[in-house]
């Protein structure tokens, strides 16, 4: 029997686990969080159930269906609070996956080593926030952090809140804030009408299968109308102000490349601001497993969601930012093929069609809302770029100028940008762009990136020193395969 | 005779040689297949150590290098100005601790030998050692303090030496692999061939660290420099609780060993950034850089023997590199008798950061035909201890 390890229990991972079980594999599904669902279906813990999760979450019934199917299936072992800190590919056989299991801030997590026949990497993405003056002030949140507080703690980040950045994610963030009692004084999308039109309007027939997605966005828009939230295009937060915490933000109109237009600044009093400019895929485990990346830095997969490494599959946001529906389709395909199925099997026909539909939808979103090249114009010499190590843009510029270095690796080590506790997860790609921009020809000279992190998750020295338990992905004999696919 | 030199390799040894030669009036071109400090020099600890070396030629070179670093740290600061990142020169001293009875006597004997060679190696009692490092596990068997051990931030030190070399006229060509030697019709060396064309000079100096053997091979010559992999762990920032470089006494054995199997020994210190660096492993597995968790676990376990409080420290990063290992444990510094005009400055194993400045002076003096500060013969490519390795592989 094929032993499949699914890393990540968001939409892609849950779908992969169910499809692999449906095809008869024994499955281990693990996630670092306390609960299944990932970022998209982040919710209150089971000990504090809420009656209105269905209202806060799109596709909640899909989630409950997936989660319950897997939770009641003896052939699927679920490891919560399980963090993969390394993948080792030295042997000739399958990769070794090194895991710690237990409360992240508790004492004595257990170390576990798995050697599955196949791996599905469904590690998702985290939201990306570009630096701007004042973004390190308390009261400035990433959209994802604000959303997480709203969804899993029911906490509002402030009373008067601005939501800004780029992308459709601004809409659910604003909706969650409004639902938890914040007054959202405005949503500011940096891209302008022509970009949105270019992204959204051509070939409308391609969108026919994505009506539910359109419905999801329409739901946010009607929610905004109900909460009287203004949605302004072509505007960006260019500064956050305050002494101990944010007291106001400056919004400016921006050119199509996001360069601020002088004279358009407008100051708005707020006690919180949520900023999100899209998503960065969590690539470290795929890189650790040896998977090739695409030119735009997602995991490269074939039609069966298999990566360049045989037996290693990827699904969801790591293969391209596309949202939960695309992740469900990709996860189903990945799980089925990882368990020994083929792309032509009847149960994959619907997921394959849906993948095509939602991939087009994702391409449109990116065309409409993607980050534009002029963003560094808002960054000043005293803007902190790396918040962990408190490295300013001025320090980056000065170090490039004084050393003449063209090496991202050397410049990171010389400035400490990206070397802090988040290991460049927040600032890495912004640091790359800013350092390249300091070069005479706009290019860095070494082939490294900030995506590679051989220690993929923090591990305590004592945990690392302890002998691991070696176990097969499932210790019990799996029950007969379950029925059905999403 | 023309005084132009091509240096192959923009690591710390190449940068130090470029600076010394450019300051002496040589016309220097440094060429690297990657970028400055892109290899071993940015994948190590920045150790300037005497504590790990027994009496002999390498120790003499390290003792001299230590005096050069004290001066260079000041000179580089003055020359490059306050805008240049600090090389973080820190003469913090090293504390070597034997954690077993079996390890205590060899450590004390080793230190006695070092003292006879002029090393400041002070045997401490338990209370003295604990006053230096209050969080050290108190059940150690012997402790020796080496006030002369110091460190720099190796990437910045390399960048600083290269920046200084360029200010003195050296040229730097990055991302351009050297593909072979250029000879005239009589077969004499007149330069190198590169991926971007020919480059001519009267002398070529190979300073490519663990890749020096590959460069020499492209010239048709054997140079027995082998990669020895070393890994380090980096913790997240913490309160300053480790004040010196602290080593397990078995570090001494690992450095001098020819064993190719995995060895780990503790080298623990705080950095200027507030993190703690924990090393290290030594393993001969070619240029295989794939992660090996059991090596990291071994490093972690040994570190906890010295500092139990580190059990709760969060490891956020690992990095590793290849040390240029020589079969007779001495760097190779000087002109190659097999091909006049070809020079070597490589094979410093785990000591290249410290030895770089002394190596550069020796190369400069030899190229100028002047007497060297230390006897250069023991480091020569023509030395007897290297001969069997050259013949064997040739």
Key traits:
heterodimer; A: 486 residues; alpha/beta; FAD/NAD(P)-binding domain; 3 domains; five-stranded parallel beta sheet; 31% helix; 20% strand; globular; disordered C terminus; B: 394 residues; D-Amino Acid Oxidase, Chain A, domain 2; 2 domains; eight-stranded mixed beta sheet; six-stranded mixed beta sheet; 19 strands; oxidoreductase (chain B); FAD-dep_OxRdtase (chain B); FAD-binding oxidoreductase (chain B)
What does this structure look like?
Chain A: InterPro entries: BFD-like_2Fe2S-bd_dom (IPR007419), BFD-like_2Fe2S-bd_dom_sf (IPR041854), FAD/NAD-bd_sf (IPR036188), FAD/NAD-binding_dom (IPR023753), Metab_Enz_Cyan_OpOx_G3PDH (IPR051691), Opine_Oxase_asu/HCN_bsu (IPR017224). Chain A: GO terms for molecular function: oxidoreductase activity. Chain A: This is FAD-dependent oxidoreductase. The complex is a heterodimer of chains A (486) and B (394). By secondary structure, chain A is of the alpha/beta class. Chain A has 14 helices and 22 strands. In chain A, a hairpin with a 4-residue loop joins strand 19 and strand 20. In chain A, helix 1 packs parallel to helix 9. The radius of gyration of chain A is 22 Å and the shape is globular. The C terminus of chain A is likely disordered. With 394 residues, chain B is α/β, with parallel strands linked by helices. Helix content of chain B is 31%, strand content 25%. Chain B is built from 10 helices and 19 strands. An 8-stranded mixed sheet of chain B has the order 5-6-4-14-15-16-13-17. In chain B, strands 8-2-1-12-19-18 form a 6-stranded mixed sheet, sandwiched between helices. A 3-stranded antiparallel sheet of chain B has the order 9-10-11, covered by helices on one side. In chain B, helix 1 runs parallel beside helix 9. Chain B starts with a strand and ends with a helix. The mean pLDDT of chain B is 93. Chains A and B meet through strand 4, helix 11, helix 12, strand 21 and helix 14 of A and helix 5, helix 8 and strand 17 of B. Strand 21 of chain A pairs antiparallel with strand 17 of chain B, so a sheet runs across the interface.
């Amino acid at each position: 029997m094929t032993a499949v390890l699914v890393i990540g229990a968001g939409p892609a991972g849950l779908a992969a686990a169910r499809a692999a079980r449906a095809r008869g594999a024994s499955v281990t599904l693990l996630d670092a969080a306390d609960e299944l669902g990932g970022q998209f279906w982040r919710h209150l813990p089971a000990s504090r159930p809420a009656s209105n999760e269905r209202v806060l979450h799109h596709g909640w019934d899909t989630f409950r269906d997936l989660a319950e199917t897997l939770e009641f299936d003896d052939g699927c072992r679920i490891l919560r609070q399980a963090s993969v800190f390394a993948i080792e590919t030295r042997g000739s056989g399958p990769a070794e996956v090194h895991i710690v299991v237990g409360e992240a801030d508790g004492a004595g997590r257990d170390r576990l080593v798995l050697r599955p026949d196949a791996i599905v990497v469904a590690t998702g993405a985290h939201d990306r926030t570009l630096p701007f003056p004042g973004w390190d002030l308390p009261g400035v949140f990433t959209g994802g952090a604000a959303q997480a507080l709203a969804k899993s703690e029911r906490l509002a980040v402030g009373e008067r809140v601005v939501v800004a950045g780029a992308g459709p994610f601004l809409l659910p963030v604003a909706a969650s804030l409004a639902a938890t009692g914040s007054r959202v004084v405005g949503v500011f999308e940096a891209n302008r009408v022509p970009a949105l039109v270019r992204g959204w309007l051509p070939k409308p027939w391609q969108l026919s299968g994505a009506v539910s997605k359109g419905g999801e966005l329409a739901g946010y828009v009607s929610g905004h109308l109900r909460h009287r939230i203004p949605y302004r295009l072509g505007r960006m937060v260019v500064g956050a102000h305050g002494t101990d915490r944010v007291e106001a933000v400056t919004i400016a109109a921006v050119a199509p490349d996001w360069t601020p237009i002088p004279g358009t600044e407008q100051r708005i009093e707020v006690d919180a601001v949520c900023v999100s400019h899209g998503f960065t895929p969590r690539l470290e485990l795929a890189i650790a497993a040896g998977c090739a990346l695409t030119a735009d830095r997602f995991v490269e997969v074939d039609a069966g969601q298999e990566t360049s490494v045989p037996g290693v599959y990827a699904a969801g946001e790591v293969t391209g930012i596309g949202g939960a529906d695309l992740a469900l389709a990709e996860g189903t395909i990945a799980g089925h093929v990882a368990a020994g199925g083929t792309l032509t099997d009847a149960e994959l026909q619907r997921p394959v069609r849906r993948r095509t539909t939602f991939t087009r939808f994702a391409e449109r979103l990116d065309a409409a809302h993607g980050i534009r090249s002029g963003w560094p114009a808002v960054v000043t010499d005293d803007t902190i770029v790396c918040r962990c190590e408190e490295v300013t843009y001025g320090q980056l510029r000065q170090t490039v100028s004084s050393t003449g270095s063209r090496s991202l690796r050397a410049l990171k080590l010389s400035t400490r940008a990206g070397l802090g506790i988040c290991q460049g997860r927040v600032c890495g790609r912004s640091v790359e762009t800013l350092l390249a921009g300091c070069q005479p020809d706009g290019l860095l000279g070494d082939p490294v990136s900030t995506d590679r992190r051989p220690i993929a998750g923090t591990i305590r020295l004592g945990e690392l020193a302890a002998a691991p338990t070696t176990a097969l992905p499932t210790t019990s004999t799996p029950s007969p395969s379950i029925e059905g696919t999403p | 005779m023309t005084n132009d030199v091509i240096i192959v390799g923009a690591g710390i040894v190449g940068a130090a040689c470029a600076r010394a030669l450019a300051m002496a009036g040589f016309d220097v071109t440094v060429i690297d297949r990657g970028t400055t400090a892109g290899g071993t020099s940015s994948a190590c600890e920045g150790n300037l150590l005497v504590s790990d070396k027994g009496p002999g030629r390498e120790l003499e070179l390290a003792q001299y290098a230590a005096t050069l670093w004290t001066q260079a740290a000041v000179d580089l600061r003055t020359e490059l100005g306050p805008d240049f990142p600090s090389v973080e020169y820190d003469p913090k001293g090293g504390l070597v601790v034997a954690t077993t009875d079996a390890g205590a006597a060899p450590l004390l004997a080793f230190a006695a030998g070092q003292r006879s060679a002029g090393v400041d190696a002070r045997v401490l009692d338990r209370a003295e050692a604990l006053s230096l490092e209050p969080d050290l596990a108190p059940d150690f068997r012997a402790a020796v303090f080496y006030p002369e051990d110091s460190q720099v931030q190796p990437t910045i030190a390399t960048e600083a030496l290269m920046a200084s070399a360029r200010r003195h006229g050296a040229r730097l060509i990055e991302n351009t692999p050297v593909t072979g030697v250029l000879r005239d019709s009589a077969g004499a060396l007149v330069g190198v061939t590169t991926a971007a064309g020919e480059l001519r000079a009267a002398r070529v100096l190979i300073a490519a660290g663990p890749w020096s053997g590959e460069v020499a091979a492209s010239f048709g010559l054997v140079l027995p420099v082998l990669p020895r992999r070393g890994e380090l762990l980096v913790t997240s920032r913490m309160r300053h609780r480790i004040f010196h470089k602290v080593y397990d006494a078995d570090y001494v054995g690992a450095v001098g060993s020819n064993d190719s199997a995995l060895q780990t020994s503790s080298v623990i210190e705080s950095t200027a950034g507030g993190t703690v660096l924990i090393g290290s492993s030594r393993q001969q597995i070619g240029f295989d850089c794939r992660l090996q968790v059991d090596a990291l676990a071994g490093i972690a376990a040994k570190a906890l023997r010295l500092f139990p409080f580190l059990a709760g420290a969060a490891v956020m990063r690992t990095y590793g590199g290849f040390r240029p290992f020589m079969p007779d444990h001495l760097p190779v510094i000087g002109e190659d008798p097999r091909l006049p005009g070809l020079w070597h400055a490589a094979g410093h194993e785990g000591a290249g950061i410290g030895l770089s400045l002394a190596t550069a002076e020796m190369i400069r003096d030899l190229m100028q035909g002047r007497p060297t500060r230390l006897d250069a013969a023991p480091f020569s490519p023509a030395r007897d201890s290297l001969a069997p390795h050259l013949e064997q592989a040739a």
